[in-house]
Amino acid sequence: MPESRTAPVSARSAPHRTAAPTWWVWLAAWPVTAVFVLSNAATPLYVLWQRDIGFSKGTLTVVFAFYIVGLIGSLLVCGVLSDRIGRKPVLLPALGLALAACLTFATASSVPALIVARLFTGVAVGAVVSAGMAAVTDVAGPARRRLAALLASCAMVFGAGLGPLVAGILSETLPAPTVTVFVVETALLATAVLVVLRMPLPRPAAPESGAWIRVPGVPRGNGTQLTFGIAVFAPGITATSFVLSLGPSLLSGLLGTSSRIVAGAMAFTMFLTATGVQFAAQRLRRRTILTTGAACTALGMAALVTAVRGASAPALLASALLAGAGQGLGQLGGLSLLNSAVPAQRLAEANAALNVGGYLPAGLLPVSAGYLSDAIGLTDGATVFGTVLLTLAVIGGVLVVACRDRVPEAL
């Protein structure tokens, strides 16, 4: 849709709207955090389900990938739907599905049950990365778009890291480990429902034209911003997805431990790095943010190869930290590019487009690495994965540098 048609509608969307207090901008990010806690809460528990149900590393990555299937399917709908009918009508059903996922996880006794739970989780996550992150921007208003991009991005990665840490601690210290975790998460999601119900959001302003289910995109003229964001964000989130899906297996082999607290702590540290690096880099030029993110992902994959080839636990930790930094910077750079250029009535769809570009490789490559590891061994499988992803990260960084004149400088 050409920008010349969308800009006037945006201007009419809230002519006399009073700006919400800054605390509401922070609170608006809570539903994103709560759903992303769920997204990775199962990570330390897979070893328990593998023991009780019995399935291979390849099957494990397939279970993980159904989360991506649900997420991608959700992104094909939720971005456009949210822009047309509003954020709340999309977020509330998504939170309902997240609650259903908690119930399914807590009662799972088979691989199909785990797949259904991951599918529901993916759909809920697809809604919050499109409608939920756009809601943060809507509450913030035009004058606080930089803050909105930062908080929405940090809410995502902080929740993604908090989930496995809380799950690891609860499952090691309390009875019924695969149940207790999801009881706690149910309570967190209930508070998120209350926040969404009270959230001060403007009415949607998007014209109802075009297909309701489609591959999400951006308005004409914003394709460059989307491309740069995906080029760096996609390798970064693929790296963190690998650590989440096969990191516990690598830890078990390198450290000889199956501690769920250790696995959860590694994931939390990875995403805490992704959160902290965004606050540290928030005032840097976008080009610097993106190129640094690409470099971090590339170095992280070099560290991963070193870890598996040399059986080095410190190198594995370095790989996780660098992967987190790569995802965080790529995500912040991509979201800030879109927030600065895309009109409000297409923002949820633009966020969905960025995440489709990121999550597709994040689903496909770790699954391929899982089955490859079953066939040729975890060491060689992880080496191949790390080499491929290092190459993609370098290509993304080179693209940003080569086209640096087309990346807006100021945040």
UniProtKB/TrEMBL annotation:
**Any transmembrane segments, and where?**
21-42, 62-81, 90-109, 115-136, 148-170, 176-197, 230-255, 261-281, 288-309, 315-338, 350-372, 384-403
Localization, UniProt: Cell membrane
For the keyword Membrane, the answer is yes
For this record, an example GO cellular component is:
plasma membrane
What are the residue boundaries of the Major facilitator superfamily (MFS) profile domain, all occurrences included? 1-411
Q: Which UniProt keywords apply?
A: Cell membrane, Membrane, Transmembrane, Transmembrane helix, Transport
Q: Which CDD domains match?
A: MFS (cd06174)
Instruction: State the annotated membrane topology for this chain.
Output: Multi-pass membrane protein
Q: What is its main location?
A: membrane
Q: Please verify whether the record's keywords include Oxidoreductase.
A: no
Q: Name one GO molecular function term.
A: transmembrane transporter activity
Source organism's superkingdom?
Bacteria
UniProt-listed Pfam families:
MFS_1
Q: PANTHER family per the record?
A: MAJOR FACILITATOR SUPERFAMILY MFS_1, RESISTANCE PROTEIN MDTM, PUTATIVE-RELATED-RELATED
Q: What is this protein called?
A: MFS family permease
